[in-house]
6-phosphofructokinase (Alteromonas sediminis), 331 residues
Amino acid sequence: TKNFAVLSSGGDAPGMNAAVRAVVLACEREGGQVIGYRYGYNGLLSQSCRNLNAKTVHNLIQQGGTVLHSGRCPEFKSEQSAKTAAANLNEKAIDCLIVIGGDGSFRGAAHLSKYWSGQVIGLPGTIDNDIPGTDATIGYYTAIETAVTSIDKVRDTADAFERLFLVEVMGRHAGFLALKAAIASASDYVILPELFESEDKSLNEIELQLHKHRKDVEHDSFIIVVAENVWPGGLDALSSSLAQRTGSEIRPVILGHVQRGGSPVSQDRILATKLGCEAVQAAYDGDNCIMIGEQKGELVRTPLSEVCDASKPLTASTVKTMKLLLNNRYA
Ligand code: ATP
């Protein structure tokens, strides 16, 4: 049998708890024990941890956030930190550390493995879906749902006053969440980091689209989804440029951290449960320095080195649909 430690690191995401639960139950099935470190790598450095078992993970699958808490830990990049972490893991007789987080967290796991002889396994947990090696990350589906529900509400009020709304959606430097949210909310235009060329080009397209849209549709509410970190100067700059060009009243809305919260939708629970169980299986198979993902319905194990430094393209078929019904509808 093997003893496991688990931690969640970086931005929290709905479904992290479901992953912890799966790891604990799968590990107990094999007769092993699990501890959970608090606040990401911070807990690993300070040996702040608690025992996890079937009782502590009961009723956990539906809870948002992460019961282990998450955290950023800049000092974990140092050699000394990795050595301290290795000593702490050895003191607790841990065979395998499971890290739930984003690419930064996986870089941390790879760094640790240079100084620790145990196994490290990553589970992709972030609402941004910006991790290669898996079609979706844990938390992504719930965040889409939250963004879409919010944009639906924005549309109700936009329709009432015939206004132009800008809605900023999270995603760090990736447009997955913005793209899916824009399609599912029937928004009129979407600005994505992967496709952004220039301010002028976007403004011209929006102006043309708005003009045609107002001819086509009786009411003239118009919703533009904007991925965060794309527009130079942010939503306020875009808002004033558009107001100047169109003479319309613009209302900017930043959805913000609501997108990281909430009870996970079933797709995230199922993904987290499958990946968590597979992580334990991979540990028994002797795998090390890998991330567990799901691609085309199959569980896949990818070396952390391939996950950390690669970028993940938007799904071509989704982009195609977006170009037909959103950005280039009148092209
Ligand atoms: P998200 O993208 O959802 O915010 P993330 O895992 O990418 O998640 P980061 O803040 O980039 O979030 O990284 C989380 C933590 O991982 C850092 O605070 C640090 O403790 C650790 N980490 C990141 N990069 C490295 C590195 N190169 N070496 C060691 N540890 C690292």
In short: The longest strand covers residues 96-101.
